[in-house]
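User: Here's a structure from my thesis project, written as structure tokens. My advisor, Dr. K., wants to see whether a designed sequence matches the one we expressed. Can you design one independently, without my sequence as a hint?
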């Protein structure tokens, strides 16, 4: 008797995760590398001992990064932020976040990826100045 070759037919449920012949799920693109690069330096109180939160609600908006103690928001602007409509929207967003008591610092993705130390230094300088002002007010109270 001659052996019959068995041809594997595609599983009709190949897209279902339980199907053994289903392809592995596509890798998620995940968050862009720029926020991750900055978050590495801001998280776990790595920058001057200040606690930052990622994707923190502020009024009607969600800030990229926020230090609630100092009421500081750090926003990252990619290429899509430079068209006229986005510039106007970002300016309005900044005004609205400042109206609820936050200071907003904006950096481009290019600055973060190419000049990380300068970005971190600018953030830390602002935090240091804030701490000196708050400390001075508390001593006078």
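Assistant: Designed independently from the structure alone:
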């Amino acid at each position: 008797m001659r052996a019959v070759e068995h041809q594997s037919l595609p599983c009709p449920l190949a897209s279902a995760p339980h199907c053994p012949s289903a392809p592995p799920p596509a890798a998620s693109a995940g968050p862009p590398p720029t926020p991750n690069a900055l978050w590495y330096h801001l998280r776990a109180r790595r920058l001057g001992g200040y606690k930052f939160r990622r994707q923190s609600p502020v009024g009607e908006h969600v800030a990229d990064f926020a230090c609630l103690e100092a009421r500081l928001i750090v926003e990252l602007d990619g290429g899509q932020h430079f068209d006229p409509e986005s510039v106007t929207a970002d300016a309005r967003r900044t005004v609205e976040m400042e109206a609820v008591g936050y200071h907003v610092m904006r950096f481009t993705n290019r600055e973060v990826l190419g000049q990380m130390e300068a970005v971190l230094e600018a953030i830390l300088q602002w935090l240091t100045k804030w701490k000196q002002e708050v400390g001075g007010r508390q001593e006078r109270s």
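When you compare it with your expressed construct, this may help: The first strand starts at residue 53 and ends at 58.
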